[in-house]
Amino acid sequence: HLATSLPLPSERDHLRPRIDLIVFMIDIKSKYSLKNVEASLAYVDASFFLGKVCFLVTGVGRVNYCSVEMNAIWKLGEVYCSPVLFCELELEGIRVTTAQRLLRMLEICAGHVPGVSALSFSLLMRNSAND
Amino acid sequence: KENADHQITAFLLHKQWTLYSVTPLYRFSNARLRDYARLLSAFIAAEKQKGLAVEVGVELDIKVAVSSLPDLKGSDRDQAAILVQLSSRSPASPKNSEEKLIWSGLFCCVSGDDLSENMPEDFTCLPLFLTNGAESYTSIVGSWFQKTFDCCFRRLAISPLNLSWMAAMWTGCKVDKTASAMELVFSVPCLPQPLDISYAIHPEDAKALWDTVQKTPGEITQEEVDVFMDCLYSHFHRHFKIHLSATKLVKVSTAIASAHCDGIIKFLQSQYLTGVLMLLTELAISQIQ
Questions:
Q1: Average pLDDT value over all residues in chain B
Q2: Does position B77 have pLDDT exceeding 60, yes or no?
Q3: Which of B158, B189, B245 sits opposite A31 (nearest CB)?
Q4: Structure pTM?
Q5: pLDDT band at residue B116 using 50, 70 and 90 as cut-offs
Q6: Cβ atoms within 10 A of the Cβ of B262, count?
Q7: pLDDT exceeds 60 at position B56
Q8: Candidates 3.40.50.300, 3.40.50.460, 3.30.1360.20, 2.40.50.140; correct CATH number of A19-128?
Q9: Is B260 helix (H, G, I), strand (E, B) or coil?
Q10: Residue B248 and residue A29: Cβ atoms within 8 Å?
């Protein structure tokens, strides 16, 4: 399900399936997208931050179009204890790889991978990012 | 020395300069400038023979001058700036008629310690290249330097982040005479036809805003720049219901200087000339590294 911001409209609450993973997309070319994500985060229940949230930064291929400062994004990942992924949507190869990664994360968050919980996986991702 | 400074400054001000980053020059010598001028002149003549006509029709006699500007630097560790000038004189006109300056290129390094620190002896660090004049001459001069000194030129791109820094920094600068309005130009993405938004702010209002944001005079943080820009964006949104933060900042004009994201600069205030060159040197160095 794709939404431009949170909260999701309440009218469809009863029809909505369980949400296993929330991917917040930040376009590095748009400061507005960062502000939007920051505002939307306030509407997410705390339990999601135990491995069911991740940040996806797009548009990273073109450094010259950078309107968002990287430190702000790292800080966001730290404050919300969630991993930060990077991708360039315009390149098909990277787009496909990123989609596969997200799908794998979703499988784990939905509990379909035995032995790996959403929380342990997100800790693994954050630790490897810090290296 | 004062007079020389004035001349250089007057030469740099109020002209549109295109910016490039240059990797260190191999075996460049300040003592051989006359030789370089001669070699470059021969190269240009050869290119013209090859049919790379730079001026259609008119047969121009191009004279090359390469000089050193020892005072154009930030710290003592910086290399002296190198100025390349192309002048033309029509062969039909008498020998002592005026030569017209048709192209200028300036290699400089203002406080470029980050780059020159660990540089081996044979390399000269002049990471910032400014040109004024026809693009065709820029590419000929560039090719000669690339061939002769094994260096690499790249157009210097200025990101919206860096442009915001310039907007904040330059707004804080004191100017004697009445400052011109601050202008920010934004390009709106994802539209079938290109759309530019120009946002003009009264210089005193801009300065007043910046003064409330900046906590320590002489120091600027990313946070302060963000707050400054956010205030400008919210003000605009209140009036026009447009989120400038979703667009791309492409040009910043203040009384100090004006800068465009494609790497074009215009210096407008002599007292801040070195300061702006220092900032541009930093950008050039980070583009190289």
A1: 89
A2: yes
A3: B245
A4: 0.87
A5: confident
A6: 14
A7: no
A8: 3.40.50.300
A9: strand
A10: yes
Q: pLDDT per residue over B178-191, tens digit each?
A: 778 899 999 998 88
Amino acid making up residue A44:
V
In the DSSP assignment, the letter for residue B246 is G
- Kindly list the domain boundaries of chain A, sorted by start residue: 19-128
pLDDT tens per residue across span B90-104: 666 666 667 889 999
Burial B214-253 (b: 16+ CB within 10 A, else e): beeeeebeeebbbbbbeebbeebeeeeeebbbbbbbbbbb
What are the b/e assignments for B145-155, b being 16+ CB within 10 Å? beebbebebee
Please list every residue in chain A whose beta carbon sits closer than 8 Å to the beta carbon of residue B160. 29, 65-67
- The DSSP 8-state label assigned to residue B54 in this structure reads S
What residues does A55 pair with on adjacent strands?
A: A24, A84
Q: Which of A29, A67, A73 to mutate to test the interface with B (most CBs of B within 10 A)?
A: A67
The pLDDT of residue A131 is above 70 = no
Q: Is the Cβ pair A66, B161 closer than 8 Å?
A: yes
Question: Rounded to an integer, what distance in angstroms lies between the CA atom of residue B207 and that of residue B212?
Answer: 9
Q: What is d(CA B64, CA B45) in angstroms, rounded to the nearest whole number?
A: 11
Instruction: Find tokens 């290119």 and name the residue.
Output: B47
CA distances from B85 to A4, B139, B151 (A): 54, 14, 19
Confidence of residue B59 (pLDDT cuts 50, 70, 90): low
pLDDT for B152 beyond 60: yes
Smallest Cβ–Cβ distance between A65 and the set B222, B233, B248 belongs to B248
pLDDT band at B172 (very low <50, low <70, confident <90, very high): confident
Q: Which residues in chain B (159-218) have CB-CB distances under 8 A to chain A?
A: 159-161, 189
Residue extents of the structural domains in chain B: 1-155, 160-261
- Tell whether B243 lies on the interface with A, counting CB pairs under 8 A: yes
Query: Predicted ipTM?
Result: 0.81
Q: Which of residues 56-95 of B touch A (CB under 8 A)?
A: none
Alpha helices by DSSP H, listed for A51-91, are: 70-79
